[in-house]
Each structure stands twice: as C-alpha cells, then as structure tokens.
Amino acid sequence: MSRPVTVVGTGTGAPVPAEATAGADLVVGGRRHLDAVALPEGARRIVLGPLAPALDAIGKYVADGRRVVVLASGDPGFFGIVRALSERFGADLLDVVPGVSSVAAAFARLGLTWEDAVVVSAHGRDPRTAVHVCRAYPKVAVLTGPGAGPAELGAALARTVPGRVLVVASALGDPARERVERVTPAEAAARDWGPAVSVVLCLDEARAQGPVRTLAGPVRRPAGWALDEAAFAHRDSMITKFEVRALALARLGPRPGDLVWDVGSGSGSVAVECARLGAAVSAVEKTADGVGRIRANAAAHEVDVHVVHGEAPEVLSGLDDPDAVFVGGGGRELPAVVGACARRARRTVVVAMAALDRVPAARAALTEAGFDVDGVLLQSSRLAPLPGDVTRLAATNPVFLLWGSRTPVPEEGVAQ
User: Fold this and answer.
1) How far does Cα 129 stand from its chain's mean position?
2) How many CA atoms lie within 13 Å of 62's alpha carbon, on the beta-carbon side?
3) Mapping DSSP to helix (H, G, I), strand (E, B) and coil, where does residue 361 land?
4) What is the DSSP letter of 115?
5) Distance of alpha carbon 270 from alpha carbon 183, whole angstroms
6) pTM of the predicted structure, to 2 decimals
7) Whole-number mean pLDDT of the chain?
8) Which CATH number is correct for 229-415, 3.40.50.150, 1.10.599.10, 3.90.1150.10, 3.30.450.40?
C-alpha cells in the first residue's frame, strides 16, 4: 500500500523519473525542480517558499486521501524537509526516495572519503557555529544559506585559521553550471558567490586524509579529560592542576560548535583540553615563551588552538565573542579581565585564583555582568611514595574556583 506523501530527492543525482510524480494530485518543490518534471494532468503545483503554507496545503490533501509528491534537493532526510514533514504528519505517512546529498557529491568530486567529516548546517542558523566547527576539525562540510555563505565563512576563518582550504561547490548535478573551486579563506571573503552554492568544504589538507576507520564521525573522541600535568610542557609547575582542570572543564562544558577563550593561558592545558573535546579555542598569553609552549602543547595533542600574544583585557577586543571563558592567574588586573570576559561570554565564565584577596572582586565582576555566581575552594592531597614502601599524602596548593553562568543558549545542529 502506497503512502500518501512521497518525498523524492533530486538535484545532485540522476533526474527524477517520470513515474515519481505519476498519479500525484499535488506536487510541491522548488521552482527549478518543478520545471524539470512533467506534472500529471490536473495536478496542482506549489513552489516552495515559506514552509508553513505548503505544509497546510499538504495537510488538506492528505486529509482528503489525495496523493502528494514533494521534490527536494539531494537527500531530503539529511538536513532536509523530511524532518518537518515527519513532525507534522508522522513518519509512517512518508515514502522517502533519497537522492545523492550535496555533501556526498562534493567529497566525491575531490576523491575524498567523508566518514570522518563533520557536517554542520548554517542554512537559516547562526553561522558562528559553523565557523567554530571549521576551526576545531580538519574535515568539515558546511551547508550554506543567505548571510552564511563562502564569503562570510571565509572572512571569519581568515582571522584565525588562514591556512585552511575552502572548497566551494556550486550547482552540483547541473552539467552546464557545476563548479568546484578551491580557495583560501581570504579569497572566499573577497568574492560574491551568488545563490548557486551547494556546499562548502573546509579542509586542513595536512590531516584531511585520515587513517582507515571503523566508526564514522570526527577522529577526536577523547576517552577522558583532566590529563596529568606531565602531558603538557610547562614552566616550574605553573600549570592548572588536573583536579582544578577537571571541575573547570565541567563548568565550561566545551563542545563542538563552541568558542572558548583561555585567558592567561600559560601552558595552554585548559585550551588544549577544550579543543580535545571539540570546541574552537583562542588562548591568550602575554609572554612570548608561554605562546611557544601553548603551540607546542597543541601540536603534541594534535588539536588546533588559536594563540593570541597579548595582554588582557586590551587584546580581547579583536576576538570573536566566546561561549565560555576560562581565566587563569590572579594579578591586579584580574577584576578588569573578568569583567571584560563576562561582558562578552554567552554562557559561562570560570575563574581560577590562588589569592584569597582576588575572590571578592572577581565575584563582583561576574555578578555585575548578570551572571549567577557560585564557587568552591579546592584542596587536594595526592598519594606520594616514601622510602620503605609506604605512602604519604602530599597536599597541593588550594585554589579558588568561581564560575558564572547565564541561561543556556539553544544548541545549533551539528551532524557527525
């Protein structure tokens, strides 16, 4: 028994067969899709624009027991119209005929596998999520949209990862108009790409051809966090200890699509751990030797960290707004740094301090910026061996950890 709504994927694969629309009372799709098929005699057609009126019309036809065909680009179950139709009418009423998605077609044009790619949609969404994913991962496909195309993506990436390669695929599946172009982020930012862009691939070419995989998705899925201090190069034990880092990471909540600032980064241990968990990271450090250590630690853990050499709060004005911020250190400038970070952070600011005197001012800076503030004094004692096969407890320096949080920002969609 045929289902009342047939969804046919088209656009980057073979033409829609004539039988796909046979017997349809209503055919819905983009203008180019409708112009490319023969409609049954007496069938009504609706050119897709705003989705709500089309869904209402489909609902009326379904209620009357009449057949509907919906034409969509590529694979309609991949960031496509199947979601809206399923939510409105139920999956059991849909007969979905998938086509080749623009993502699969673009990678095929390059001869690259994509089981290890991250796919993110910027169509009708805030493009910042796509930008941060492109910074954090070596192989990304971005589904673009008005105001979130190759130019906007390139402009954002040129400031932080100018060495990425953007592959702009336009009019995929159209023999006369298809184009696949490789450009730098700066070159992408300087062009008007028009409405025919199908998808943009963002590649770190040194890492784009990964090893043989048995599990799809990005390579970086760490088994744990709060790595031992020995996992990082550092100066004279000037590093956020793993006990403090564990709670800081729990409060920061770094995830794919986020941007995290690590201000006063030092060795970059927090920055590297956030990057290992999938976030884009900007590490701010005022000392030249610290900048070198952060870069070395990021390279050792095979993550991308955007390292900024400068002194906060002044240098922060040139950075994109973060989702979460970690502030380390505790000089006289700490209240000003915390305040500047709190005014920009979308979700969370975490502050680590060794000095009791700095706590009230840091707390006030978070409160004045509208955060709900909490905190804890962390004291730990580690097992330490003694001669004679015995063990003692060696106390680490106590650290105050404050965190401020806002109402969570709704997550953007990221497919892996």
Assistant:
1) 4
2) 20
3) helix
4) T
5) 32
6) 0.87
7) 91
8) 3.40.50.150
